[in-house]
Amino acid sequence: MLVLSRRANERIVFPSLGITIHILKLTGSGARVGIEAPAEVTVLRDELCATPVMPGSAPAGKADHALANALSKITLAIHLTRKQSEAGRSADADATLETALASLEALERARRQPAAAAPRCRALIVEDDANERELLAGLLGMKCEQVGDGEDALAYLEAGGRPHVVPLDMALPRCDGPETLRRIRADSRYAGLKVFSVSSTHPREWNIPEGPAGFDAWFAKPLNPRRLWDAMQASLGSSAPAHAN
Fold first, then answer.
1. Whole-model pTM?
2. Torsion of Cα atoms, 144 then 145 then 149 then 154, to 10°
3. Residue range(s) in the chain whose domain bears CATH number 3.40.50.2300
4. Of 2, 70, 143, 190, which sees the most CB atoms within 10 A?
5. pLDDT, mean of residues 177-200
6. Given strand 19-26, what is the order of strands in its sheet?
């Protein structure tokens, strides 16, 4: 479990990544944060994020590229935290920072595990908020396809896409979550596909059943990314419905 302290002069350490976050100073309008990272990990202020790659730089391998992408998303989330804090949106800043730290925790955990031990789980993220899709994909650390609504999700499946699990937002444009789920369950080609419903509301409000005819797990927003990741890994070896909040 990630426990975030708000006290100054404390640190959050990710030893396998070589990253340490220092809480330097707390004020009424924001937090001063220091980031210690290896030389190969670039940490920039948001106004410098467009700095071009120098010619002649060695191309990264697939593993390094994936790590760089994940760290890039985390860095952007930290910069967004600072902007939200400066704008006086402390609750939004807290939520964004906790998402970034949870992402670092998941990345740290993945780096500690042997690559061969990680289940080959494929996910189809169905969420109309592009930023939320990107953050979630980076956090999960697995092969993820991303679409913005139910029509695109169904088109992806129809074209032969075969994810192991579908985190499905309920409030979607064109074809919403309940209708998307109903059409998935009505098609025998998708039998056994795990669908994890994601919503800021209660399942009773959508009148969606649990189990083979409905959702396999229900996750309330704001999303707990650790519990979603754990449920997705467990889904590879179990067909039983699960509850999570």
1. 0.53
2. -120
3. 119-235
4. 70
5. 93
6. 10-14, 19-26, 31-36
> Cα angle at 225 between 35 and 170, to 5 degrees?
135
> What is 119-235's CATH number?
3.40.50.2300
Pairwise CA distance, residues 187 & 5, whole Å: 48
State pLDDT tens for residues 84-123: 888 888 888 888 888 888 887 777 777 666 544 444 678 9
pLDDT number for residue 58:
38
Angstrom CA distances, 69 to 33, 74, 81, 182, 190, stand at 21, 9, 19, 34, 31
Of 143 and 47, more confident: 143
Percent of the chain exceeding pLDDT 70 equals 70
Q: Rounded to whole angstroms, how far apart are CA atoms 208 and 64? A: 41
Q: Please identify which residue in the block is written with the tokens 């704001």.
A: 222
- The model's pLDDT over 141-188, given as tens digits with 9 standing for 90+, comes to 778 899 999 999 999 999 999 899 999 999 998 899 999 999 999 999
